[in-house]
Design goal:
This protein is an alpha/beta fold. The protein has 2 domains: 137 residues, Four Helix Bundle (Hemerythrin (Met), subunit A), CATH 1.20.120.420; 223 residues, Rossmann fold. 42% of the residues lie in helices and 18% in strands. The chain contains 12 helices and 18 strands. The protein has a 7-stranded mixed sheet with strand order 8-7-6-9-12-17-18, with helices on both faces. Strands 13-10-11-16 form a 4-stranded mixed sheet, with helices on one face. Helix 3 runs antiparallel to helix 4 and helix 5 packs across helix 6. The model has no long low-confidence stretch (mean pLDDT 94).
Amino acid sequence: MLVDGKPYRTVWLEPETRCVGIIDQRKLPFSFRTVQLTSTAETANAILEMYVRGAGCIGAVAAHGMYLAAEECRDEGRNAGDFDQRFLEKGRELCVTRPTAVNLEWAVKRQMEAVRRETDADAKVCTARELAQTIADEDAAWCKQIGVHGLPLIRDLFEKKGSREPVQILTHCNAGWLAFVDHGSATSPIYAAHDAGIPVHVWVDETRPRNQGARLTAWELGKHGVPHTVIPDNTGGHLMQRGMVDLVITGTDRTTHTGDVANKIGTYLKALAASDNGVPFYVALPSSTIDWETRDGVADIVIEKRGSEEVAMVSGVTDEMIYEETDVWIVAPGSPVANYAFDVTPSRLVSGLITERGICEARETAIRALFPEK
């Protein structure tokens, strides 16, 4: 996507170096900064501390982190067996940073399997570098196809409205290009509709506690010229009751092959409100986000608990000309805080899944029919 006229992805290989470039999403929307990663440890910290976030982006950055891991293993010398063992350990270091998003483990395992097949250290490094680029390219291509398949949903709603009034779409958290490598998942159909001349307006949940909607989704949509309005998280149900939402599209950090959806905390409440008001609730995802082993998302998906400071404090700027952020406390002193990062929306509340291969019902037979090789 374009940032002030310049194309960017969320992760890239710096040419002729051993560095990986990323966008520091913690600084948005007040400052656009890029960071260079040079080691596995720096990559793990970037994922843990949310320099990068979003399922596809985390997976692609982890894949690039495994390339850096391969470089480190070659530097450490010894034999191929030692290389593979150290490479495995570095993969585990990355995997523990964010346990809920499935793309992270998926990308690390894919790198491990590919690198293990090579017998020479130089070949292992070359394979890891090439695969990191491939995973990023796949993510961008798959997300673009999500837009292709999701566009008819929005076009049909616009035609059914029978007026020039925009299609009102509500989304939660950030499932835009910042959450992937490019295009995004939930935003991809929105961008496709906007670019096709279909009037759309997006209700953007602020998404406490880290405000990814207010900080990231709103910034993205604004840069692309998509009309939008930021709302408090608790406003969605009110809007749906009054017929002010035509469609809900969210992303997902892990979706079971039976259709249960783990996404940013608060997604389940949006699905309940949508169900009660007859509003279609769709989830957009590339197939790399599908968990082919877990059946019961509510019972078996590990829900990450993050630090209390994310809830107890908020960040913002006091001078819109300087853009230096300040953290302030908003919780009564001494009050304990719980910070569950995700919740699970049962498949029965999901109208459909928008994938790179098309749209299917959120149930096992439909998902496997779309991905028969699984």
